[in-house]
Amino acid sequence: MDPVAAALAAGSADGGQRPDPHRVKLQPARRPDLTELTAKPAFRPFDAEHLETATFPFPAELTIEGRIRLGKAVVVPNILAYATHSAVGIYDPGRHFLDLDDLTPSIVGDTLAAMVRHAQAVRRLNPAALWSSINGNYLPPSGSSLVHPHVQSAHDAYGLTGQRFLVEQSRAWKEEQHGSYWTTLVDQEAGGPRWVGHAGRVAWLTPFASSGFHEAWAVVSGAADVTELTGEDSRALGQGLSQVLGAYRAWNLTSFNFAVIGGGPQAREHGHQVVLKVLSRANPEPMYRSDATYFERLYGEALIDLSPEEVADGVRARF
């Protein structure tokens, strides 16, 4: 059985079966000490004692709550927005760092549900923002610039490269096969070597062609867009994602990216279903931070900090 599937099927907090170290060559022999990395720095805007002054509330027309709260999770505007509308979801402001086994089903599920609530508010305010996603970088090897665990969303009229690609391929499949690709995939994988199991209407499996290490997918039957996720869906996604992270923890892994991918304006017409993808990243090393985030690893979308014209301006004088 695939090692990720074996661990998830076990459904235990310790992640279940450990992969054969002779077969999984990149399996870390031991876990790094995260004490120094996760020590509290001077700048910690997501900690409870700084949250109210370091973040801004949402405008009243988006939500009268100001900051969206559910359980321990808090959602605030993203100061470094990657889309027309973008929010940050903090799993638990009361704890500066949560290790993988601290990201319990309830903590993850509440954070996803709060982000879905924000997505629904955005859609009411701006019906043109029809492409939605919820995403996460965890620790510097995943591209995260802040250690305090958090997630980020994107809502706009354009969508991300990989997001649009999934919907285009879903449309092509439906036109050729007269059905939903995702339903076909789940039906085909059920009970097989890459099958993990069901939680609610969420099916968990590992992909035939992975795009990263230890990758797992969740497919939400009946939900074509992030805004269609119910509270039960968020809890099921939180439960499954927490179990995947429990497996990572048992395998001495520490860092990961994930994405919850909605299908845009014609998602239902094209047979798309909401997909969660999660994969592991390298363990932290001193003075190391990756410049590849969930954008690059899960969407095929490169981030840059300067326009090509600005780069040309800076280089031109040297020629």
Tell me the strand percentage band.
15-25%
Quick one: biggest sheet? 10 strands, antiparallel
What percent of the residues sit in helical stretches (DSSP H or I)?
A: 25-40%
Class based on secondary structure composition and strand pairing: alpha+beta
Radius of gyration: 20 Å
Average pLDDT figure? 91
Along the chain, the helix and strand elements come as HHEEEHEEHHEEEHEEHH
* Total strand segments: 10
Q: How are the strands of the biggest sheet laid out side by side?
A: 1-2-3-5-4-9-10-8-7-6
Termini gap: 58 Å
Shape: globular
Structure annotation, total helices: 8
The low-confidence parts are 1-15
Give an account of the 3D structure.
- The protein has helices at residues 3-10, 48-54, 105-125, 161-177, 181-189, 231-250, 294-299, 308-316, and strands at 68-70, 73-77, 87-90, 131-138, 150-156, 195-199, 202-205, 213-220, 255-261, 274-281.
- The chain has a 10-stranded antiparallel sheet with strand order 1-2-3-5-4-9-10-8-7-6, with helices on both faces.
- The chain is of the alpha+beta class and 319 residues long.
- The chain is globular.
- The chain is built from 8 helices and 10 strands.
- The longest helix has 21 residues, at 105-125.
- Strand 6 and strand 7 form a beta hairpin.
- It starts with a helix and ends with a helix.
- Helix 3 packs across helix 6.
